[in-house]
From TrEMBL:
<feature type="transmembrane region" description="Helical">
    <location>
        <begin position="20"/>
        <end position="40"/>
    </location>
</feature>
<feature type="domain" description="HAMP">
    <location>
        <begin position="177"/>
        <end position="229"/>
    </location>
</feature>
<dbReference type="InterPro" id="IPR005467">
    <property type="entry name" value="His_kinase_dom"/>
</dbReference>
<dbReference type="InterPro" id="IPR004358">
    <property type="entry name" value="Sig_transdc_His_kin-like_C"/>
</dbReference>
<dbReference type="InterPro" id="IPR003660">
    <property type="entry name" value="HAMP_dom"/>
</dbReference>
<dbReference type="InterPro" id="IPR003594">
    <property type="entry name" value="HATPase_dom"/>
</dbReference>
<dbReference type="InterPro" id="IPR036097">
    <property type="entry name" value="HisK_dim/P_sf"/>
</dbReference>
<dbReference type="GO" id="GO:0000155">
    <property type="term" value="F:phosphorelay sensor kinase activity"/>
</dbReference>
<keyword id="KW-0472">Membrane</keyword>
<feature type="transmembrane region" description="Helical">
    <location>
        <begin position="156"/>
        <end position="177"/>
    </location>
</feature>
<dbReference type="GO" id="GO:0016020">
    <property type="term" value="C:membrane"/>
</dbReference>
<keyword id="KW-0418">Kinase</keyword>
<dbReference type="Pfam" id="PF00672">
    <property type="entry name" value="HAMP"/>
</dbReference>
<keyword id="KW-0175">Coiled coil</keyword>
<dbReference type="Pfam" id="PF02518">
    <property type="entry name" value="HATPase_c"/>
</dbReference>
<protein>
    <recommendedName>
        <fullName>histidine kinase</fullName>
        <ecNumber>2.7.13.3</ecNumber>
    </recommendedName>
</protein>
<dbReference type="InterPro" id="IPR003661">
    <property type="entry name" value="HisK_dim/P_dom"/>
</dbReference>
């Protein structure tokens, strides 16, 4: 109890500036404390892997170049040949023994006494004409590796500390300039309003949330001032015209006209806000698609990078064989086979990436604006389904399209795609929630100058108590759990007000939900209209 009281007292005394400073410092230090050791470990592991690969490559080179001198028993030539490898400062000793008698053939360890270690050794057999004639043992010292790791550690930690300090200073300066000072100004203005000082205007020339808040306070000031003025005027009018009924009726009529004008203005604001909500929903869906496309591109591009690095390694080995004069026909054949296979894999991955980017490019153009054009219904929904695949793949649910390829519409593919995306998301979040499997299906067929689209799922359905309210704004069964209640409301408005169609829903509990959308093949309105969501309503 005492501890909670002290904690509450401390919390109440923490100012906004202090809270921001603490949040910035902890927010930057915690990730740094986690990521810096991880990156250092990664750097060390990569360095050790490279050192091991170099060790293996050097001992392989020795086993090849010492084959002929060992067969001819010419230690002088063997010493000269091994000097190529011994020129590497990491090499501590090179020991060659003959087999099967295991006699020492050559030994070069002049640098061993000056190296600190630790040391690692690797042994390879020396063959000549398919016969094992000897063995080479190569020992490397890790002095240079340890020095490099220590240098990388100091450089990385110094960079991280300086970056952290600069980030903290910059963020605090920006927050002081863009948040703390404006908030204090708005607090002073709010206190002035509370004291009834309504003559001086409130102005904060900014386009962000604080600017909107200042505009709201200014609107509140104007409304209060106007209300007080109207109250004074009405009181004066009541005193002046209390004896004249006709004047009172006329005054009431004027007030009703003013109220009617205000209601019309409010209706226009509501329509504008509704259009803005539709645009925001569309852009949110586009952001989700961007994340999905990035996830899908990661696999083929990662495969291409792996294949390219493998091809580079094979090419480097081939060049080493050519430079060493040890190239063989089998080596060229193996390299050509590897190059052909790598090229095929690279082309396949890049073609897959290009196809995915092409689908997303068209969908992104449609989703980011409400431009009208002629499009094929099947192709448009296939592109959307491909972009939704990344999110649906994480679920046990299946989305199926059954649409003829000859349905052409002159309409708004971006808005129709938003309707389709909202229906899929609604089915996954509400209809199929908590199920181990599920199936969604979208069909379409022509009906004269119209097309009938039917979207069904085999989820838990919608109860009769709420089925008549699902198209109402802000109605959701996930209130407080991330649901906004705007998805189906926006869907209804797009279908009925922009696409010129109708939408009906039917459901049987535990047997799924069915949406029927009937759209004209040619949407109503001007065919050159840029964005129907923001037209005068």
């Amino acid at each position: 109890m005492w501890f909670q009281h002290v904690l509450s007292s401390i919390r109440s005394r923490i100012t906004l500036r202090l809270a921001i400073i603490a949040a910035v410092i902890f927010g930057l230090m915690v990730p740094s404390a986690i990521l810096v050791p991880y990156h250092l470990h990664t750097i060390e592991q990569a360095a050790r892997v490279r050192n091991k690969e170099d060790h293996n490559r050097l001992v392989e080179i020795l086993s090849v170049i010492l084959s002929e001198p060992l067969w001819q028993i010419t230690p002088e030539i063997a010493n000269i040949s091994s000097e190529v490898v011994y020129s590497d400062p990491r090499v501590a000793t090179i020991e060659v023994t003959t087999l099967p008698d295991r006699k020492e053939f050559i030994k070069n360890d002049t640098r061993r006494a000056t190296q600190k270690g630790p040391f690692t050794s690797m042994t390879r057999e020396i063959r000549h004409g398919g016969q094992i004639i000897g063995e080479v043992k190569l020992t490397l010292a890790e002095d240079l590796l340890q020095d490099s790791l220590r240098s990388d550690f100091r450089r990385y930690v110094t960079t991280a500390v300086l970056s952290l300090l600069l980030a903290v200073i910059f963020i605090l300066l920006v927050l002081q300039w863009r948040l703390v000072r404006p908030v204090k100004l708005l607090m002073d203005e709010s206190d002035r309003l509370a004291n009834g000082e309504l003559n001086d205007p409130i102005a904060l020339n900014r386009e962000d949330e604080l600017g909107h808040l200042a505009n709201s306070l200014e609107a509140t000031r104007q409304a209060l001032k106007r209300s007080f003025g109207e109250l004074e005027i009405k009181n004066q009018q009541l005193l002046e015209y209390s004896s004249t009924l006709e004047s009172k009726v006329r005054q009431r009529t004027q007030e009703l006209e003013s109220v009617n004008h205000n209601l019309e203005a409010a209706l226009h604001n509501v329509n504008t806000a509704q259009a803005e909500l539709a645009r925001v929903e569309r852009m949110a869906a586009l952001g989700s698609m961007v994340a999905g496309v990035a996830h899908e591109l990661n696999t083929p591009l990662g495969n291409c990078l792996l294949v390219a690095s493998t091809l580079e390694e094979e090419t480097r080995r081939l060049l080493e064989m050519v430079e060493g004069g040890q190239i063989r026909r089998s080596d060229l054949t193996r390299y050509a086979t590897t190059a052909v296979d790598s090229t095929k894999l690279l082309l396949r991955g890049l073609q897959q990436s290009a196809h995915l980017v092409g689908d997303f490019k068209q969908v992104a153009v449609d989703q980011s604006s409400a431009q009208r054009r002629t499009f094929d219904l099947l192709i448009t929904l296939q592109e959307l389904t491909a972009l939704l695949h990344s999110s649906l793949r994480k679920t046990p649910f299946i989305l199926e399209l059954d649409i003829p390829p000859d349905i052409q519409l002159n309409s708004y593919p971006g808005l129709l795609g938003q309707v389709f995306t909202n229906l899929v998301n609604n089915a996954v979040i509400h209809g199929l929630e908590g199920r181990s499997s599920g199936h969604m299906r979208c069909t379409a067929k022509k009906q004269g100058a119209f097309v009938l689209m039917i979207f069904t799922d085999d989820g838990k359905g919608i109860s009769q108590e709420i089925i008549n309210r699902i198209f109402e704004p802000f109605f959701t069964t996930k209130f407080g759990q991330g649901g906004s209640g705007l998805g189906l409301s926006i869907t209804f408005n797009i279908v009925t007000n922009v696409l010129g169609g109708t939408i009906h829903v039917s459901s049987v509990p535990d047997q799924g939900t069915r949406f029927e959308i009937r759209l004209p093949l040619i949407a109503p309105g001007d065919k050159d209209e840029k964005d129907p969501l923001f037209k005068d309503q």
